Amino acid sequence: MLNRILGTLSGRTPDSIYVLTGGVEWDISVPVRTVGLFGPVGGQIEVFVWLQHWEDGMKLFGFPSERDRTLFLDLIKVEGIGPKQSLKILSGISSQDLALALDTGNLAALQRISGVGPKLAQKMVLALKGKLVDIDSAADQGAVASPWGDLAAALVDMGFDRKSVEAVVSARAADVGTGPESEKELFRIALLELSAGGGRR
User: What is the CATH number of domain 4-63?
Assistant: First the structure.
């Protein structure tokens, strides 16, 4: 069973990444929100994966952290949610915010996700509330796995709340592209947004 892939990021689309390993290029579907978290094309990356296999084909799903993959697998256990829907849900909300909404039974937050109506939100809460791993540990794991971990750590050191930092960096990483100045631009954007939003501890 595949667990993770380590290789070179050879390309990306709005909802997938290509990873080159030993002459083989993997086409991996990822949550839209996380595409930018894998860093610039040409860089070395680690992707936690899950393989869907059916009679006529296979599809590989990937995540920037083991925690994100675990949440994806938790979601597909919910009645009415398959792999594609689970990926769509994780594209509409950060894993930390989703875990928090599920653990606290925040139906309003869940219904703001595209494709999640009242009935599905209730099913998600009934199936997963109180059954997820510790949210703070999840955030820590995501920070370590992210290529923007140093940037996030710098913002936390400046006094901003870690969960707010992770949410903003995750949401804005895809907006800065993959150029040499992308990290500086992401830092600038995150700093402005956190300052305006009152993200101090």
Answer: 2.40.50.140
pLDDT digits over 75-107, tens only?
999 999 999 999 999 999 888 888 888 988 999
Q: Could you give the C-alpha distances from 51 to 1, 15, 69, 73, in angstroms and in order?
A: 8, 16, 11, 11
- Dist. CA 19–CA 6, nearest whole Å: 8
**Pairwise CA distance, residues 68 & 38, whole Å:** 13
First CA to last CA across the chain, in angstroms? 42
Class in CATH terms, 66-128: mainly alpha
User: Do 24 and 70 touch, CB atoms closer than 8 A?
Assistant: no
Strands 24-29 and 44-54: what pairing?
Answer: unpaired
Side chain identity at residue 150, one-letter code? D
The secondary structure of residue 11, as a DSSP letter, is: E
